[in-house]
Amino acid sequence: MTAQTAIKKFAVIGNPIAHSRSPEIHQAFGREMSIRLHYDKILAPLDQFAITVHDFFAQGGSGLNVTVPFKEQAFLLCNHLTERAKAAHAVNTLWMEKDQIHGDNTDGAGLVNALNLLNWPLDNSRILILGAGGATRGVVLPLAQAGALEIVIANRTQSRAESLVADLSPFILQSAQNTSLSTSTLDDLTGHFDIIINATSASLEGSGITLPYTLTFDYAYEMAYGKPSSFIEHAKQKDVPTADGLGMLIGQAAEAFFVWNGVRPSIESAL
Q1: Annotated catalytic residue: which of 71, 98, 236, 238?
Q2: What pTM does this model have?
Q3: Most buried residue among 39, 82, 209, 234 by CB atoms closer than 10 A?
Q4: Contact, 250 vs 271, CB < 8 A?
Q5: Is 71 among the residues known to form the active site?
Q6: pLDDT digits (tens, 9 = 90+) for 188-246
C-alpha cells in the first residue's frame, strides 16, 4: 500500500467516552474529502492520560481529539501550541510532528460556528458560562472575538474561575478589547443575559443544575449532548430556545479535521 492510499488513524480520548459521536462525524468528513481514515474511541484511565497518548502515536496514530476531563492535561503534554491553545490553557486536538506533540484548541471555533448557524446574536451580547474547566477555557476568547460585550464565568469554586480570567485577560486585551470578562459564584448569579452556556459536566454525570430565579436569559446552550439535561429542561420551562452541543461538536471536529488534513469539510456532511 502506498503512502497516498494509506489509511490514517485518528481517535478521541476521554473518560467517559462511550457516548462520543466523533467517529461517525470524522468518517463522514473523510468520505466527503476522499481521505481514507479510521477513527476510534479511547477510554483512558484517569491517571494514565499521557501514557495512552504516547502509545497511540507510537502505534502510528495521526491525530487525537481530547475530551473531558483531559483537556488541561493535554495542554501540559504539548511541546508546541497554537495561539488559541495558549490562550485557552486547554487542548482538544493533538498531532505529532518530528517526534514533538503539537496541540490546538478548536472548541471555540466550533461553538461560535454553532451559535451562528442558530442565528443567536453574539455581537454586543452578554454571555454567562457555567463552569471554569477546560471546556470553558477553549471558548472564551473566540466568543469575545465574535463580538461578545460581556462574559461572566460562574463556578462553584470562584478561585478557579478567577484563575481562568487571569489567564485569559491578556489575550482578551490584545484582540477583543471591548469585552468585559468577570466571575461569579453560582449562588450569586442575577440579572439578564442574552445567552447562557452550560460548560459543566453535570449532564454527563446525571446531576442537576439549579439556577437562581433572579437569573433570566434569552437562549440556552448545553455543551454536552446525547443525554437528558436538567439545564435544558430548566430553560424550556422558561420558554427559552435551547440547543445541545452536537452543533459545537461537529464544528470543532471540522476545524480539527482541517488542522490534521489541510482541507476543510462542510458541516452539513456530518449532520
Answers
A1: 71
A2: 0.89
A3: 39
A4: yes
A5: yes
A6: 888 999 999 999 876 555 556 778 878 999 999 999 888 888 899 889 999 999 999 99
For the record, the C-alpha cell of 12 comes out as 478521541
What is the pLDDT, as a whole number, of residue 177? 87
Closest by CA to 242, choosing from 215, 223, 227, is: 223
Q: Are 256 and 106 in contact (CB under 8 A)?
A: yes
CA neighbor of 175 nearest in space, from 246, 260, 83, 47: 83
Distance between CA atoms of 216 and 192, rounded to whole angstroms? 5
pLDDT, residue 156, reads 87
Query: What's the CA angle centered on 198, arms 210 and 258, to 5 degrees?
Result: 170
pLDDT bracket for residue 160 (50, 70, 90): very high
CA distances from 147 to 113, 127, 153, 198 (A): 13, 11, 17, 19
